[in-house]
Design a protein that fits this description.
Length: about 400
Amino acid sequence: MLTTKPEDNPLLGSREVHTVAPGVRTLGLQGNSLAVETDQGLLVVDSGPAPAVVPEALDRLREHTDQPVRWIVYSHGHLGYNYGVPGFLDAAAERGHPRPTVVAHENVVRRYRRYLETAGLQNHINTRQFRRRSEAFPAVPPLTFPDTTYRESLTLGSTGRTVRLLWAPSETDDVTAVWLPEERILYGSAAVINGIPNIGTPMRTMRDTVRWADTLDRLAALEPAVVIPEFGPVIREGGAEQLTATAAALRWLRAAVVERLNEGRCADDIVHDLDYPPELFDVPWMRETYGHREYIVRDIVRSETGWWDGNPTTLHPSRPADAAVARADAVTDKQAVLDHAARLRDAGRVQEALHVVDLLALAPGDTPEIEAARTLKRELCALRAKDATSYVSRSFYRTAD
């Protein structure tokens, strides 16, 4: 599971309890997380990355309310948000409280089964995306399957404050938003992240851009007075407008990419051809702090085309190592390649230098030229990481072989 140190984990929140409204607070267990007081007890959304973080969080929360935890709601099925559940269950048992009920959208069950089947793959992805050693992730994820699931919506509690869980497919197909209709407070969950939507992350499964836009429009139609995003400050003014504007940006991307696909262009051409409208993209809530607009472009391409890039060479390619050896062997003056890549680097053309150095850097072996190419590639990746706005891009540059 992910580290519990805030400085090392971009998913952790501020670690403090913040009051949004009477009886509604963010916890900082993972992102903002959420605690809502009801007549039946506390509803907690997102339990954190590990049971160890729960006691401190509960101590802070008990300064505001002594209600027992009645429900633990999964905002979505990504594991780091839900690993803390056993800590809540243990705390309830120690206090003699009834066991909290774990609630999630029904698609979480299918996701969890897939995560068990692909645990090794998930760990490999996470070691690179979050720059962690493989030992930081369990070989078999300690999952807590939900006790109760729902399909479209679910109202919790029979008296007092109304808490409505709403299916909000976006980053995943199992996202749950929380709507408090009397106060018009919306916890946007993974659908609202106060940054460009996390679509098209390089090593993740495909996400549906238009479905995310549809979800944002549906949430905006609630006309929330307050929007609590999964990450970032609470939005007390213009929340619905922000949701609508984000949806409009996603729809613009979809139309622009499809237009170019219809012209026969490939993904690499399209990402360099788009002129993004500043009124949609140069706004605070579309900052590329985690995701990136080019990621979204590539996911839209993936949603409409196959895996082939159109180059006949890649249709039935050799093993990567064999192809790398053949390219490196074809270069009779390897020092010239290194020198040219260095000149491109010095001219500020770092990405082009990476393309050149890969003529040698990907080949196996430990000859001096190959080792020099790998060293230069690490330097080039470090330079690219400095300029990358997206945390994910920085991670992949910094974990490059």
